[in-house]
Amino acid sequence: MRIHKCIPILAIVIASLACSVFQKAIPGTEASPQTQPATEEQSAALQILESITPEIESAPGATSTETPPSPTAEALPADLPYYPIVDTGQVYCYDDSGSSQPCPTQGQPFFGQDAQYSGNAPSYTDNGDGVINDNVTGLMWQKDPGPKMTYAQAVASEESFDLAGYDDWRLPTIKELYSLILFSGVDPSGMQGTDTSGLAPFIDEAFAFEYGDTAAGERIIDSQWATSTKYVSTTMRGDETDFGVNFADGRIKGYPADKLFFVIYVRGNLGYGVNDFVDNQDGTITDNATKLTWTQNDSGVGLVWKDALNYCERLDYAGISNWRLPNIKELHSIVDYTRSPDTTDSAAINPLFNVTPSINEAGQMDYPFFWSSTTHVNQKSGTGAAYISFGRALGYMNGQWMDVHGAGAQRSDPKSGNPTQWPSGRGPQGDAIRIYNYARCVSGGVSDEILTGGDVDPNVGAGTGLPGAGPGQGLPGLTPSIPQGAPSPAAINACAGLSAGAACSFAAPLIGTVNGNCLEVQTQVLSVLACMPDVIP
HSE-up of 464 (CA within 13 Å, CB side)? Predict the structure, then answer.
């Protein structure tokens, strides 16, 4: 158990609830008087954001009416929760330059990343009959997917599939299949040549795995595996979309229904992936299924990866001091695939959670990407980290921004840098690059022992070491966000009638008045001022 010093937490927490655009006052705070009218662009942005008022107002104190009932425990070990999260398998630490480093100690930059916390170690048993047992989740898996098939073929074959004497196999949900992903893999995206011998897939060697068949015109990364989870909205230009896991490049994306997938079937533990959220009425949410406790509010402002780690590590809230940034599989556990901005006017998460709204690159009301503590190693470099899109997973294609992969997609962003360097996104679908993503902190579910020091990733290499924070420095300052289409309504409203560079402030429910300066926010269709907080202590 870590012991934190008592220090003020200078962060933005669901600032949207304090925004006067909703005409909803927070007890004990007053909106700053506005002496000048808002610009037309400012008004347009606020009008877009007003549409989320019902979602924001219904979140505090809501009851978990949408959570499915817990399954019976007859088929589960008595001492095992029905939704145990398998650890990511990441064992090395990284900085934001691409280097692997000995794992830092508390107070050093990059402390609190995935490899430093150990959870349920992956454990598989090959039964020798074409079936793999997952000893953590209780799920049983088909070992070899065989030839690729379409989603329709996968569904049609499910009924007649028989293996090892069992006939109750099913196409896995996205949460069941994602339980198999391991972040000891290396993403070969953009790789030159066809030799895959030096690569490592994002799945355990117990399973049969193939990269894409380059001789047949496929890319090396074309190893997408099908799930039964369909996107409740559509992607691209209204395409019906199925979620899949890519075990070649380590991502979840929504894919067109006629795509060819690898397919493995699963059986057992029907409760896997079913959340059991409880509002603790103190600003925290506990999932009794995973035994994890979450902050009900998010960081309220975009942060580079290093600062997202620091934000959660320094948090002391609701009587809990051992908050941390979740690893990517923990973060994925709270995605609600029955929700999306286009179908429920909400983020893809249970309404018990508060999510700061934003305006995306297309000028739409949307919700942020959220950082995980997990590094996404790409071609022997650790410059990226994995995130979940709780709003639209935008990409720039055919001259416009659109939802290309669906709310609930898992992709990766550079850990630092300037997002304006990617005005048209990155990759084949022009994935939006934000870099300044949001944070939601978690507690529980890991060993009290925190890994420090140790080896570096031999495939990535070591850098020059991590500087210490030094005595008396307190909380290191968080880097102010370079806005890239993700301002909150409170931040926009605080700069109504002001000019760029002007001092501004707004109220945050947990920390009171937040001060900052008005900076210009650029999107494809809007140019507005937003109050970016000065959080250097």
Answer: 2
Note whether 449 and 118 are within 8 A (CB).
Answer: yes
- Using DSSP, state whether 376 is helix, strand or coil: strand
d(CA 66, CA 277): 10
Secondary structure element (H or E) that encloses residue 294, with its range = strand 292-295
Count other Cβ atoms within 10 Å, centred on residue 36: 9
Hey, how many other C-beta atoms are within 10 angstroms of the C-beta on 527? Answer: 12
CB 45 within 8 A of CB 358: no
CB distance 504 to 518 below 8 Å: yes
Instruction: Find all residues with CB under 8 Å of 460, minimum gap 6, and list them.
Output: 92, 94, 98, 99, 100, 377, 380, 381, 382
The one-character DSSP state at 114 is G
In this structure, of 120-129, 303-312, 482-491, the range with the lowest mean pLDDT score is 482-491
CA–CA gap between residue 256 and residue 258 (Å, rounded): 6
Does the model's pTM come out above 0.85? no
Q: What is the pLDDT of residue 46?
A: 45
Nearest 5°: the CA angle 75, 78, 80 is: 90
Tokens of 213: 């068949």
CA angle 431, 437, 440 (to 5 degrees): 130
Single out the residue of 422, 431, 421, 310 nearest to residue 373, CA to CA. Answer: 310
- Alpha carbons 249 and 191: distance in angstroms, whole number: 11
Give me 216's structure tokens: 């047949």
Question: How far is it, in rounded angstroms, from Cα 229 to Cα 173?
Answer: 5
Q: Which tokens hold the place of 222?
A: 């074309």
Integer angstrom CA distances of residue 426 from 187, 211, 222, 358, 388: 15, 22, 18, 21, 17
Sign of CA dihedral 149, 222, 226, 167: positive
Q: pLDDT tens digits, residue range 433-483?
A: 999 999 999 999 999 899 999 999 988 865 444 433 332 222 334 444 444
Nearest to 200 by CA among 191, 415, 427, 110: 191
Q: Assess contact for 170 and 265: CB atoms under 8 A.
A: yes
DSSP letter (8 states) at residue 22: G
Q: Is 77 exposed, middle or buried (0-12, 13-18, 19+ CB in 10 A)?
A: exposed
